[in-house]
Structure formats: structure tokens, C-alpha cells
Amino acid sequence: MVAIVSAPTNLGLRPPVRGGVPGTAKAPEALREAGLHRRLYAAGAVDAGIVLPGRYVDDDGRRPAGTVRNQAAIVEHARRLAHRLFDIRESGQAPLVLGGDCSLAIAAGLASRVTGGGGLVHIDGHTDFRHPGNSTGVGSVAGEDLAIVIDRHTPELAEIDGLGPYFDAARVAHIGHRYEDAFVDEVREAIALVVPADDVILHGAARAASRVRAVEGLERDYWIQVDVDVLDPLHMPAVDSPDPGGLAPDELIGLLRDLAPHAWGAAVTVFDPDLDPDGDHAATLAEVIAEGFAELGTAVDED
């Protein structure tokens, strides 16, 4: 049974303008307005509540060197969300987290570690692998989450409560980056599988999913982290970093349909309703989520 969790955090994103606040915190309710919750409830899902983040602060120029935006608030939210995910998983339900930004991957990693481990399928238009070892521009967790969850970042983020790495790099797959991604070569050396968006477009979602599940440790019991900028801006421009060359909604639905049954949970992140005044893109994303995650977690106990 799917358990819907709202996690409306924007803490991991850079401000859209100086002193501004990213709109991703509005995403769960925008998706509700688009009919997502009604569709999920009709399919048997339950409401598992909300885990609210701390207040977003544009602390550029004021935060200590070597830290990221809203770092303390991100860590505190990750701990609380991890507790919620732990409880849901222990109850035998499959959490579906509606974000929010992709700092939510930290909470998923913490919950995975304390419940016996599991792999990660990271579906994103970017590798999100910026870290202090490869960039002087570290500052936003939403561009650094994959590095954090395999312990390639600062200990304050990557080793919360001594639990890092949250995911074993040998059990991590990434799907969806564009070829010009700055960190893809490093990512290929760091994790088990890297599949660019072009491969999904050219060879199909079923092949990409089968490659993931052929990785030892990714046959079952993994977390799916979906950043909706994996979609092409033609279909989903309501994100903070749109890049051409992404998937079509049907391609993402096909990928999720193949992967979701064997996952213990999933999160969907970085949709920004402030960039979707008419609600058209919320409707697109609601369709992707409802169709792609219809069977979330259903095969975990059978595997």
C-alpha cells in the first residue's frame, strides 16, 4: 500500500533572486489541486501526513565557510523525515514522498541505513554530484545530493549521526543526465551504473530499467529519487534548472512502471508551482506520478 508523505522543503535550493524563496515548497498542494491525491486514494493509497521543514533563509554571504544554504535546517528535517519513512517501511507500506527539493534524498538514505540498507535509483536531469573535491561552487544541496548520499561531501551532511554512507555506491544507479553534465565522468567511476537521457530515448525505458535491475544489489528493495527536471523543458519547464534533451512524460512513466514495483519507496522533487501559474504542468506531473507509481512496492515481498 502506498503511503503519501508531503515534504514541502525548499531548503536545498538557491534563491531564484536575491532575497527570494524557491517555490518548490508549494508542490505537494499544487499536485493535490491537480487531482493527484484523489487518484492515489482511489487506487488504495493512504495519507501519511506532512513533515514540515524549517524556515528558508537566503544566507549567502553570511553562512560559515564550507557549509551549504540552510544546512542546520536541512539536517534537522532529514532526521525527522527519516523517522517517518522508517515507521512507514516498518508498517509494510511504501512511502511516496512529494517534495520539495532533492535534499530529501538524505532522509531516504538515513531511513535506508537504519532499516537494513538498500540501493538507490537516482533519476535526474543532472548528476547532482558537485562536492568540495570537484567544485568551488558548493552551496546548494539540491545540486549535491548524489555526492552526499554516497559520502563524497562534508561529514556534517554525508555522515549524519555516523550513518554515512547512506547508500553503498556499488548499489546506486543514475538515469537521466544530459551529455554535457560536468561531473558525469566522475560519477561513472563512483557508482554502479550511469544511463544518460539519450539512452532512454533511443533504446527505451524497459531496457534502462532492466540494466538497473541487473546490477547486484538493485534487483529489489531500492529507493527511487525522481527529480522532475529529468523531463524535457518542452514538457516540464517548471523547475529551477531546465535543460533540453530530457525525457517525455510517457518515457518517464514507462521507466517508473518497470522500477516501482521492486522499490521500497520513492520521492518526487523540484517541481515549482511558481513557474506554473495555470496548473498545466502540475497536471502533467500528477499523471506521471499516478501512472508511474501505481504499483510502488507491490513486488518487494515477492522478490
Task: Give the topology string: H per helix, E per strand.
Answer: EHHEHEHEHHEHEHHEHEH
- Globally, the shape reads globular
**Euclidean distance between termini CA atoms:** 16 Å
- Spans of at least 5 consecutive residues whose pLDDT stays below 50 are none
Question: What is the strand and helix layout of this fold?
Answer:
Layout: E1 2-7, H1 27-33, H2 36-42, E2 46-50, H3 71-90, E3 94-99, H4 104-114, E4 119-123, H5 145-149, H6 155-158, E5 172-175, H7 184-190, E6 193-195, H8 197-203, H9 205-213, E7 222-227, H10 249-259, E8 263-269, H11 280-292
Parallel strand pairs: 1-2, 1-3, 3-8, 4-5, 4-7, 5-6, 7-8
Helix pairs in contact: 1-11, 3-4, 8-9, 9-10, 10-11
Account of the 3D structure:
It is a single chain. The chain is globular, with a radius of gyration of 17 Å. The mean pLDDT is 96. The protein is 33% helix and 14% strand. It is of the alpha/beta class. It has an eight-stranded parallel β-sheet, with helices on both faces.
